[in-house]
């Protein structure tokens, strides 16, 4: 919660007292958001950074009503070591009292007595609706409090308005207006860990598993889980199955077993229903499969395990970014500012009117209750030969992208070709047709099942042209890192000499370094980021007993500092050295002095990240030796080089989902481009827009010509010339208690929620 004292003392709107409250009180879907702590920490520290006084409100609205010790001042140290904790450390509780005007009068008095006129609420639609009601009644509550003697006229005058900013914490991702709610990604991590474990036993015993996940009114968790694990069937409340779904389901399971699969996975949301509104339970599905097919079938209901556990790196960063934006929104608030929600649109923070979002969320529930479901969109085939390949270093999520491309291509009626070992394999004819079952179970596998090499195609253009002609390839999907980008440019350059290269080409960025131009995110970077964050958590925990210890950790990324910066933000690092943000020996000295001061507080441990190519002279060994020497008698230093463990491991739900979306979208684009460039049975694509990179840019997935991206690239250092995440570095420094200028040049402005149309390829 945030309180303004003197509107004239601060350029953003006065001297602030800031209070934070996790409110899941009125909506059980908001309880236990897996990464509310990151948002709490960000609001507290950025609030203190702006010269504000910050308070915790414990136990949500109940603490607001009860007051007393439930409202306590927050300090910098009190939010240390909480990033890795699930749930919310300040508590959340249901509160019937706040539903009544009498309860809201008590809450208003507790705020007025402390001069609080700004409130930051983290919760679901019930909590946010309560906050909006509170703001709407504020003036009348003050009048009543003055009449009854609850507050003085002077106190009421100083608290004449209440500003509210909300952040959505819900594992169901059921709030309209934001692409992702805080806690959803962590819940998907828990689900996928269980699904991956169950898959192994199901294969061993040839079983069918029915897994029930949360989602009474929203099927997001079920749908993304089904995409991420390659499930045979998924039931969600928003899209009930056809009336004869029992026959369709049984036929699908038989077909899967007929293709050699030893298991079946069925995902069901707890709120799944028929078109008549009757519930479809996991037991119903089990009984159906056992009775009609005789398959050994087991039910697993995941329950509240989905709410717990360590937050994912995505949720930690999302909570931190949303927390910073919430503080900025409150600093800029005026008496006329409506209550808003800080939301995520693509990769951008946006502000939306709170009640617009709440109303649309309720409209969805109403539509479902009235059984107004959209009809399914049917696709027609085209019959082209599409090849898919991996290039560069392996990255978790590559296999999910390949699987999606292959299966969506087959649905379109295409013949899908798998190219092994990158451009080298394409040059030497290592191409084979791949069917539906050929990519079965690939989604959850790390590395590259197709094989991948860093070989570039320039010296093999003649051989590659011959392979394209031999296999009659009409379109090419290239999934990989910087080599995929530069290699595709070489293919385009070779079009002038080799006509066979004049086919549509789509590049999908997949690299742990996240250094491919044209995309804010690359497949594989999230998995690597979670690996680093988890390792940092364990390393920090190892110092809990010894204390006075500083760890220097080296991350991968080449010259790109994305992993070091974002892992630093997710793990609460004290510094992150990267190539893009040059540093000197004086900066290293300042960091050492900062850590020496930190050791005098209650937090007696430090974490420093270094990108592997941040500086050719200030190596990891140099920094370790410097810290060891300058910290003598104050702290000990340790170093860790994480190495290739960052490239391995099971892909995270984000990378599985992202890879699946990118693979599906690439096929839809290629299909359109092949039709566009087909003339009399021949394909001739030689324009700039026939070779594109598919990337996430700000708020949407877009196709960008490789020729345009070439101008935006630093080829010497294998980097984009502009990188969005660099603007987050001041947040990292501020949260580590350094003085820094917060970049607000791209601050979010209040927008209105929009109803987006669904493109054809989205219904694949």
UniProtKB/TrEMBL annotation:
Residue numbers binding ATP: 94-95, 124-127
Binding residue positions for substrate: 170-172, 207, 214-216, 270, 298, 304-307
Annotated Mg(2+) binding sites: 125
Pathway: Carbohydrate degradation; glycolysis; D-glyceraldehyde 3-phosphate and glycerone phosphate from D-glucose: step 3/4
N-terminal catalytic PFK domain 1, as annotated region: 1-384
Catalytic activity: beta-D-fructose 6-phosphate + ATP = beta-D-fructose 1,6-bisphosphate + ADP + H(+)
Subcellular location: Cytoplasm
Alphabetical list of InterPro entries matching this protein: 6-Pfructokinase_euk, ATP_PFK, Phosphofructokinase_CS, Phosphofructokinase_dom, PKF_sf
Top-level EC class: transferase
Catalytic residues of the enzyme: 172 (proton acceptor)
Record HAMAP family: Phosphofructokinase_I_E
Assembly with partners or alone: Homo- and heterotetramers.
Family designation: Belongs to the phosphofructokinase type A (PFKA) family. ATP-dependent PFK group I subfamily. Eukaryotic two domain clade 'E' sub-subfamily. Belongs to the phosphofructokinase type A (PFKA) family. ATP-dependent PFK group I subfamily. Eukaryotic two domain clade "E" sub-subfamily.
Record protein name field: ATP-dependent 6-phosphofructokinase
Organism: Terrapene triunguis (Three-toed box turtle)
């Amino acid at each position: 919660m945030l309180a303004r004292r003197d509107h004239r003392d601060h350029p953003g709107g006065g001297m602030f007292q800031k209070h934070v409250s996790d409110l899941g009180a009125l909506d059980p879907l908001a309880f236990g958001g897996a990464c509310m702590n990151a948002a709490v920490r960000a609001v507290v520290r950025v609030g203190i950074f702006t010269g504000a006084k910050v308070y915790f409100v414990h136990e949500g609205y109940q603490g607001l009503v009860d007051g007393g010790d439930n409202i306590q001042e927050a300090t910098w140290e009190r939010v240390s070591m909480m990033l890795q904790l699930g749930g919310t450390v300040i508590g959340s509780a249901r509160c019937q009292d706040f539903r009544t005007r009498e309860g809201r009068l008590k809450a208003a008095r507790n705020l007025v007595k402390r001069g609080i006129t700004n409130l930051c609420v983290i919760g679901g639609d019930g909590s946010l609706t309560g906050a909006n009601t509170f703001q709407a009644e504020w003036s009348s509550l003050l009048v009543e409090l003055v009449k009854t003697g609850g507050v003085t006229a002077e106190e009421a005058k100083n608290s004449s308005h209440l500003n509210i900013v909300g952040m959505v914490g819900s594992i169901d991702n059921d709030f309209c207006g934001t692409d992702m709610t805080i806690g959803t990604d962590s819940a998907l991590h828990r689900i996928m860990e269980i699904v991956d474990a169950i898959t192994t036993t199901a294969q061993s015993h040839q079983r069918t598993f029915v897994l029930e996940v949360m989602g009474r009114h929203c099927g997001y968790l079920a749908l993304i889980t089904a995409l991420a694990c390659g499930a045979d069937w998924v039931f969600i409340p928003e899209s009930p199955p056809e009336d004869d779904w029992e026959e369709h389901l049984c036929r699908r399971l038989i077909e899967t077993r007929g293709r050699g699969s030893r298991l079946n996975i069925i995902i069901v949301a707890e709120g799944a229903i028929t078109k008549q509104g009757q519930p479809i339970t996991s037991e119903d599905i089990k009984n159906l499969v056992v009775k009609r097919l005789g398959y050994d079938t087991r039910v697993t209901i995941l329950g509240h395990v989905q709410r717990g556990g360590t937050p994912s790196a995505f949720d930690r960063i999302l909570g931190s970014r949303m927390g910073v934006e919430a503080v900025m929104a409150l600093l800029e608030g005026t008496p006329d500012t409506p209550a808003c929600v800080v939301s995520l649109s693509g990769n951008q923070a946006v502000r939306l009117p709170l009640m617009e979002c709440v109303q649309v969320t309720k409209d969805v529930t109403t539509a479902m209750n009235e059984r107004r479901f959209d009809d399914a969109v049917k696709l027609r085939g085209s019959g082209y030969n599409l090849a898919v390949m991996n290039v560069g270093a392996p990255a978790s999520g590559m296999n999910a992208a390949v699987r999606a491309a292959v299966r969506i291509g087959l649905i379109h009626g295409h013949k899908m070709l798998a190219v092994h070992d990158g451009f080298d394999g394409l040059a030497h004819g290592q191409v084979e047709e791949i069917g539906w079952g050929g990519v079965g179970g690939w989604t959850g596998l790390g590395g590259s099942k197709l094989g991948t090499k860093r070989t570039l195609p320039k010296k093999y253009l003649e051989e590659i042209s011959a392979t394209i002609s031999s296999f009659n390839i009409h379109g090419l999907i290239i999934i990989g890192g910087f080599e995929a980008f530069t290699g595709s440019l070489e293919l385009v350059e070779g079009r002038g000499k080799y006509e066979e290269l004049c086919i549509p080409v789509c590049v999908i960025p997949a690299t742990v370094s996240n250094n491919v131009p044209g995309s804010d995110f690359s497949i594989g970077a999230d998995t690597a980021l979670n690996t680093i964050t988890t390792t940092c958590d364990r390393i920090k925990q190892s110092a809990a007993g010894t204390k006075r210890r500083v760890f220097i950790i080296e991350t991968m990324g080449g010259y790109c500092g994305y992993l070091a910066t974002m892992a630093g933000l997710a793990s609460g690092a004290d510094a992150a050295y990267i190539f893009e943000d040059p540093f000197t020996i004086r900066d290293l000295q300042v960091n050492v002095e900062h850590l020496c001061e930190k050791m005098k507080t209650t937090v007696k441990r430090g974490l420093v990240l270094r990108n592997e190519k941040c500086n050719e002279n200030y190596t990891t060994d140099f920094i370790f030796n410097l810290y060891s020497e300058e910290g003598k008698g104050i702290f000990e230093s340790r170093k860790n080089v994480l190495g290739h463990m960052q490239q391995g491991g099971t892909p995270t739900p984000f990378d599985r989902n992202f890879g699946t979306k990118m693979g599906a979208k690439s096929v839809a684009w290629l299909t359109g481009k092949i039709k566009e460039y087909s003339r009399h049975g021949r394909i001739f694509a030689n324009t700039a827009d026939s070779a594109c990179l598919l990337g996430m840019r700000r708020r949407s997935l877009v196709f960008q010509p490789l020729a345009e991206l070439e101008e935006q690239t630093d080829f010497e250092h294998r980097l984009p010339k502009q990188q969005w995440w660099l603007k987050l570095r001041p947040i990292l420094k501020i949260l580590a208690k350094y003085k820094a200028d917060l970049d607000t040049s791209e601050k979010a402005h209040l927008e209105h929620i929009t109803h987006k149309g669904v493109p054809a390829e989205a219904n694949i």
